[in-house]
């Protein structure tokens, strides 16, 4: 908001009346008109003192942004326009600064926006409290609990697309700094489902809401469950239970007659039952029997009766309601476990209660009765706490307290909840007494006990046996609530109050293999059978309301009354009849009257003086003394009657709203006068400032003009002087020029005459020289002609002589050619075939190489492809080329290896040379990489002691089976190979059992079969050989033998002997035992077994 638009009071720029306490005149019509006027201008919040009225706009408004949060943060309640953030901030600051536990009660009918209001309150508190990683996590969990509870506790109804079907009360716990520590959610079950049988669970048409993305909402709920702390298996279990509840609605029954004439019910489609049993893990026959029979236990007797179709449907609906209700209670408890405060320090608490408002429908039943009872209790505590707050403020401000007349609805609460003669007590008594119990007997009992009560009406009143009130139907009774008279249909009161779940169904649920469902029905455990009748719905509800009232009594209340403007859920529509109905049953006019019973308006002295100080000359513009004295002077100056106001310790109290509006009118008029004065002073200042600026500008311009004129005159004088000087200099220059020109012409005349003379002399000499030259040229031409004639004659002679020599040479060449051809013909017949063969062979080989260039295979060493040879005589060459190419591409492939890869392949090559075609186990080891350190001793803390005892590099660390010398049984040992030693350690403790230097290892023996047994032979007489050789079994035999061979060769420079035989000797202490490998069928599959036959033979059976 811009600086000039910031409001300092809700009275500024007020649309209608922001606080209903100030409404004049006060009646139902003006109340509704004021709400409509503010609603039409998008002002959805209105105050009744400290109570906030919220009208659902059914559209998004830009009044909940982070900027709005900062605007209302730490501001006085009446300082800005009415807003839910103002009430939230007031409650939070009272909790944080005054150490008072707070409670925010949100009431209204379905679709009035209660759930959204509770979310706005929680989001505001989360925004203004502290920051930090832990605090942010707690806030996120508290906020994300709402989507989870809405997903499972809300439903689409005729009145609302997202109607809460439960009463939620959340206690948010704070530390001494005002930072949230956690929370506790209480599910008071204030809302009961209306008619459970009307819901078609799996009908997509009934569950579809326009503009709602179900997939996105489902992802939001799953994410919220994860943030709150639900494990994946818990979320899956919850969804399975929901699916089972939905499937229950599809079960239908059909009647069947038994032989004894009794009616029983059977399930029409057992596929639906089968799907439910698969989801819940219940045996199908157990659940089917529970839907068909009911077992009644009394002391030591059990009686089993069949259920007819109506009773079966009742059992199905009761099971669905109980299953979903208990699931929701489990969800609340599970969320409480996650969001509860972890510390045990003293905590401050802010409670948020979202409940249903008063209900008056055409057909009102048991549900409306108990909800209206709850609202009676809330109205009672509201009146008590409001009057108590008023009285405390009057006493605190030293204002005389006057008694306020108001309607005390305690008599109505007593009519409903009295333990002896209350309606709920009589309903429980009817439900529990033996004999025939119907809704009519319950109504008769009400007529007997409550007929004389002034707030109870029925067809039979005042104990008369005649019809006294013909406006009432026969099966109804009427209660005059604080919000008006409500007519209740007595039909269904007894059944809904019982709300029984047959014990057979509880026991069937307890037998489920689904862990969550089993935990929801502990009473189904046969070992814990309780024959005591469960409490009725009315008694449970009464206890819940008592607990809620006790909780609210300990906190400072704050109220938000939500109103639904229309039934169409559309924006910009205000149905006055609907709003009037809600105003009546919410008791809003009663709230205003209670608030206005004493003083309608109160304000601290400082803001009051600051707002109205311009109305008095003595307080304007600044008051030097105390604020209270300034207010007293101000009110005396305005001549306001003394009975219209009172002075408290820190506030001024105004009795009548007309007085406040008079002050506002005077302030508005005074502000207009002050604005006029400010404008006058400003215009005078502006004109004087403009005049002084013009005067200063004129002086500056004049000074600059005078300077410019003098400069111009100086320039003109200067230019005139320069012109005169230039004329004089020009005249003098021309005079000198004429003299110089005369002297120059005289000198030029002499030069011209001399030049003409010299020219004449030169031309004469030229003519003489030309004559001599012509004579010499004639002689030269004649001589040249003579020499040319002579040369031509000599050339002709030489050409003739050359032609003769050329003819001789040609004749000689032809002769030599004839001679050569004759000689060549003699040799051609003998050597022509060889020459042609060599030429043809050369061409074939050349073509072969050119074709091979285009048919070369890939560079992969494992590629076996090679072009076929075109001719048999090229077979050796073809094979040699193939061998050379393979060697070349292998070299190219090896050049790509890193040092580590070269080492691996070297080990693999060594293993191939040692075991290929010798050991049957070798082919299976080719594709397995040699890792060596299989145990990762450096990373495993279990082997820290073993790691510290070994200082050398570990080449192999593997668990092997050491064969016992006595009986052939195996014991697990850690086999360690280092650069110099071979070590054996205990697998559990890591303690080293044996240490053998590699120089003492002489030989390794193994069989040729597909087993992992091998013997390590030690040097006789060495210290390590005192107990004899070692016999092991390992899954990595090839790798271990190869690494042992290479390490021994590297250290001792001697090759280790690898013996491969199906029989070999092993030295055990002083005895030599023969180890023999045989083929045999094993009981344990493909694992070789070792057995000691006698003292000299150890037999290994290999499959």
Automatic annotation (TrEMBL):
SMART domains: IQ (SM00015), MYSc (SM00242). Residues 15-668 form the Myosin motor domain. It comes from the Eukaryota. GO terms for molecular function: actin filament binding; ATP binding; calmodulin binding; microfilament motor activity. ATP binds at residues 108-115. Residues 919-1103 form the TH1 domain. It holds the Pfam family Myosin_TH1. Keywords: Actin-binding, ATP-binding, Calmodulin-binding, Motor protein, Myosin, Nucleotide-binding, Phosphoprotein, Repeat. Residues 545-567 are annotated as: Actin-binding. Belongs to the TRAFAC class myosin-kinesin ATPase superfamily. Myosin family. This is Myosin IB. It comes from Saimiri boliviensis boliviensis.
């Amino acid at each position: 908001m811009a600086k000039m638009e910031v409001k300092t009071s809700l009275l500024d720029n007020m649309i209608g009346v922001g606080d209903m306490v100030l409404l004049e005149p006060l009646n139902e019509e003006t109340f509704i008109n004021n709400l409509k006027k503010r609603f039409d201008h998008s002002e959805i919040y209105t105050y009744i003192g400290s109570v906030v009225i919220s009208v659902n706009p059914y559209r998004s408004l830009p009044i909940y942004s982070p900027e709005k949060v900062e605007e209302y943060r730490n501001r006085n309640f009446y300082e800005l326009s009415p807003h839910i953030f103002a009430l939230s901030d007031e409650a939070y600051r009272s909790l944080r600064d005054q150490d008072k536990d707070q409670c925010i009660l949100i009431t209204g009918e379905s679709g009035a926006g209660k759930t959204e209001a509770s979310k706005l309150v929680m989001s505001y508190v989360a925004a203004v409290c502290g920051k930090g990683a832990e605090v942010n996590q707690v806030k996120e969990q508290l906020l994300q609990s709402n989507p989870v509870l809405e997903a499972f506790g809300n439903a689409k109804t005729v009145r609302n697309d997202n109607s809460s079907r439960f009463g939620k009360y959340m206690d948010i716990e704070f530390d001494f700094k005002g930072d949230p520590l956690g929370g506790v959610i209480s599910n008071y079950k204030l809302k009961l489902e209306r008619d459970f049988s009307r819901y078609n669970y799996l009908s997509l048409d009934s569950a579809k809401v326009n503009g709602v993305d179900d997939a996105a909402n489902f992802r939001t709920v799953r994410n919220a469950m994860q943030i709150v702390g639900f494990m994946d298996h818990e979320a899956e279990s919850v969804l399975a239970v929901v699916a089972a509840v939905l499937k229950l609605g599809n079960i239908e029954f059909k009647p069947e007659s038994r032989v004894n004439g009794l009616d029983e019910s059977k399930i029409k489609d057992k596929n639906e039952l089968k799907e439910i049993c698969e989801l819940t893990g219940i045996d199908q026959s157990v659940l089917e029997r529970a839907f068909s029979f009911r077992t009644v236990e009394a002391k030591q007797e059990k009686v089993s009766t069949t259920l007819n179709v109506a009773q079966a449907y009742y059992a199905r609906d009761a099971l669905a309601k109980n299953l979903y209700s208990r699931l929701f209670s489990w969800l609340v408890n599970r969320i409480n476990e996650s969001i509860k405060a972890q510390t045990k320090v003293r905590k401050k608490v802010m409670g948020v209660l979202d409940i249903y408002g008063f209900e008056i429908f055409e057909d009102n039943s048991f549900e409306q009765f108990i909800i209206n009872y709850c609202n009676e209790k809330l109205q009672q505590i509201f009146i008590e706490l409001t009057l108590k707050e008023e009285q405390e403020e009057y006493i605190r401000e030293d204002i005389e307290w006057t008694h306020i007349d108001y309607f005390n609805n305690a008599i109505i609460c007593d009519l409903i909840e009295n333990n002896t003669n209350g309606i709920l007590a009589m309903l429980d008594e009817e439900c529990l007494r033996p004999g025939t119990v119907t809704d009519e007997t319950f109504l008769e009992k009400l007529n007997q006990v409550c007929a004389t009560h002034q707030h109870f009406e029925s067809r039979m009143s005042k104990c008369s046996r005649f019809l006294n009130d013909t406006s009432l139907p026969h099966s109804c009774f009427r209660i005059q609530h604080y919000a008006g008279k409500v007519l209740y249909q007595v039909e269904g009161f007894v059944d809904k109050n019982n709300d029984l779940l047959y014990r057979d169904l509880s026991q069937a649920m307890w037998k489920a293999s689904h862990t969550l469902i089993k935990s929801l029905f502990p009473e189904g455990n046969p070992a814990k059978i309780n024959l005591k009748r469960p409490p009725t719905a009315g008694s449970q509800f009464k206890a819940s309301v008592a607990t809620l009232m006790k909780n609210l009594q300990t906190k400072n209340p704050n109220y938000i009354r939500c109103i639904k403007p229309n039934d169409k859920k559309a924006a910009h529509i205000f149905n006055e009849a609907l709003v009037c109905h809600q105003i009546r049953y919410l008791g809003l006019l009663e709230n205003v009257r209670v608030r206005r019973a004493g003083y309608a308006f109160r304000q601290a002295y400082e803001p009051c003086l600051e707002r109205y100080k311009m109305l008095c000359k003595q307080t304007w513009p600044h008051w030097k003394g105390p604020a209270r004295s300034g207010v007293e002077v101000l009110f005396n100056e305005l001549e306001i009657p003394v009975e219209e106001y009172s002075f408290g310790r820190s506030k001024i109290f105004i009795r009548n709203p007309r007085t406040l509006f008079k002050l506002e009118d005077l302030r508005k008029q005074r502000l207009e006068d002050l604005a006029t004065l400010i404008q006058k002073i400003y215009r005078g200042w502006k004109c004087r400032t403009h005049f002084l600026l013009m005067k200063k500008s004129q002086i500056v311009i004049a000074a600059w003009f005078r300077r410019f004129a003098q400069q111009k005159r100086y320039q003109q004088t200067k230019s005139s002087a320069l012109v005169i000087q230039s004329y004089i200099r020009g005249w003098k220059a021309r005079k000198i020029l004429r003299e110089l020109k005369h002297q120059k012409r005289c000198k030029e005349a002499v030069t011209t005459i001399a030049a003409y003379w010299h020219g004449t002399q030169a031309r004469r000499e030229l003519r003489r020289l030309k004559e001599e030259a012509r004579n010499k040229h004639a002689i030269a031409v004649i001589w040249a002609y003579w020499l040319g004639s002579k040369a031509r004659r000599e050339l002709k002679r030489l050409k003739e002589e050359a032609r003769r020599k050329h003819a001789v040479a040609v004749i000689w060449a032809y002769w030599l050619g004839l001679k050569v051809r004759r000689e060549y013909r003699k040799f051609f017949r003998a050597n022509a075939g060889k020459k042609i063969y060599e030429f043809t062979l050369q061409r074939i080989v050349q073509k072969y190489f050119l074709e091979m260039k285009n048919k070369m295979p890939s560079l992969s060493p494992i590629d076996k492809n090679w072009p076929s040879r075109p001719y048999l005589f090229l077979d050796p060459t073809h094979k040699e080329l193939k061998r050379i190419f393979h060697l070349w591409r292998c070299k190219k492939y090896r050049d790509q290896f890193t040092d580590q890869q070269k080492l691996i392949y070297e080990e693999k090559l060594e293993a191939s040379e040692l075991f290929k075609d010798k050991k049957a186990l070798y082919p299976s080891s080719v594709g397995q990489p040699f890792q060596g350190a299989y145990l990762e001793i450096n990373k495993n803390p279990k082997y820290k002691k073993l790691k510290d005892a070994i200082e050398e590099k570990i080449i192999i660390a593997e668990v092997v089976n050491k064969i016992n010398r006595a009986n052939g049984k195996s014991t697990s040992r850690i086999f360690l190979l280092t650069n110099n030693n071979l070590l054996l350690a205990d697998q559990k403790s890591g303690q080293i059992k044996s240490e053998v230097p590699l120089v003492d290892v002489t030989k390794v023996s193994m069989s040729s079969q597909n087993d992992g047994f091998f013997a390590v032979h030690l040097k006789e007489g060495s210290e390590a050989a005192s107990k004899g050789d070692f016999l092991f079994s390992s899954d990595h035999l090839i790798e271990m033998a190869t690494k042992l061979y290479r390490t021994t060769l590297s250290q001792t420079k001697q090759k280790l002997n690898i013996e491969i035989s199906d029989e070999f000797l092993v030295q055990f202490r002083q005895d030599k035992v023969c180890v023999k490998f045989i083929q045999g069928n094993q009981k344990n599959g493909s694992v070789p077994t070792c057995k000691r036959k006698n003292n000299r033979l150890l037999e290994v059976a290999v499959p």
